Amino acid sequence: SQELEQSPQSLIVQEGKNLTINCTSSKTLYGLYWYKQKYGEGLIFLMMLQKGGEEKSHEKITAKLDEKKQQSSLHITASQPSHAGIYLCGARRRYYGQNFVFGPGTRLSVLP
Amino acid sequence: GAVVSQHPSRVICKSGTSVKIECRSLDFQATTMFWYRQFPKQSLMLMATSNEGSKATYEQGVEKDKFLINHASLTLSTLTVTSAHPEDSSFYICSARENLGVTDTQYFGPGTRLTVL
């Protein structure tokens, strides 16, 4: 089973709509990262969350890590076609040690 | 914005040979660089964390003798796939961390596609 679950697996929204993508783990996470991969382009680092309850924003994208540090949500406000792509979450499962895992990704399409 | 380059972008080699991939941060210094491997269907895996002037930290299951990482300067990290085999064929991506205190971000290279015949 996936160490990190992402939902939904794919999402199609109309331009201007808000949307949320979730990243969930059954275990406490130490460092939660969000990335975006645009079709045919490279990866983009969006933000990193470490503390429970932490929230960060990057342009119209806001991500939050819950208090238990087991779930993160990525929220896009007033989506635009430029937001389309695959959103990946990644996280370290233990405070020390080499154990970084990625979620399977959420494919977002934004219809103009 | 900051730019990270990778060289080569594509390489084809014979089984048993070694291949070196370079990752450069072009306009900033990166004390930390990361190496990833991307499998078909978008599955991404962090291979190792490369720290300038010290040994790389490998993720569980990644053979350090197979994937040699050297971070000799603040702008260059190299990944050498030794004695490559067809199962090593993959898309290898690096990223460089820019930690300015107020901001801490990573910039990704465009990737290197390795095909081992």
Describe it for me?
The complex is a heterodimer of chains A (112) and B (117). Chain A has 112 residues and is mostly beta strands. Chain A contains no helices and eleven strands. Chain A has strands spanning 5-7, 10-14, 19-24, 32-37, 43-49, 55-58, 61-65, 71-76, 85-92, 100-102, 106-111. Helices cover 0% and strands 56% of the residues of chain B. Chain B has strands at 4-7, 10-13, 19-25, 32-38, 44-51, 57-58, 67-73, 76-81, 90-99, 104-108, 112-116. In chain B, the strands form two sheets. In chain B, strands 2, 4, 5, 6, 9, 10 and 11 form a seven-stranded mixed beta sheet that branches. A four-stranded antiparallel beta sheet of chain B has the order 1-3-8-7, with no helix packed on it. In chain B, a hairpin with a 5-residue loop joins strand 4 (32-38) and strand 5. Chain B is globular. Chain B starts with a strand and ends with a strand. Classes of the chains: A mainly beta (112), B mainly beta (117). At the A-B interface, strand 5 and strand 9 of A face strand 5, strand 6 and strand 10 of B.
Give short descriptive properties of this protein.
heterodimer, A: 112 residues, mainly beta, five-stranded antiparallel β-sheet, 0% helix, B: 117 residues, seven-stranded mixed β-sheet, four-stranded antiparallel β-sheet
SSE layout and pairing:
The complex is a heterodimer of chains A (112) and B (117).
Chain A: E1 5-7, E2 10-14, E3 19-24, E4 32-37, E5 43-49, E6 55-58, E7 61-65, E8 71-76, E9 85-92, E10 100-102, E11 106-111
Parallel strand pairs in A: 2-11
Antiparallel strand pairs in A: 1-3, 3-8, 4-5, 4-9, 6-7, 7-8, 9-10, 9-11
Chain B: E1 4-7, E2 10-13, E3 19-25, E4 32-38, E5 44-51, E6 57-58, E7 67-73, E8 76-81, E9 90-99, E10 104-108, E11 112-116
Parallel strand pairs in B: 2-11
Antiparallel strand pairs in B: 1-3, 3-8, 4-5, 4-9, 5-6, 7-8, 9-10, 9-11
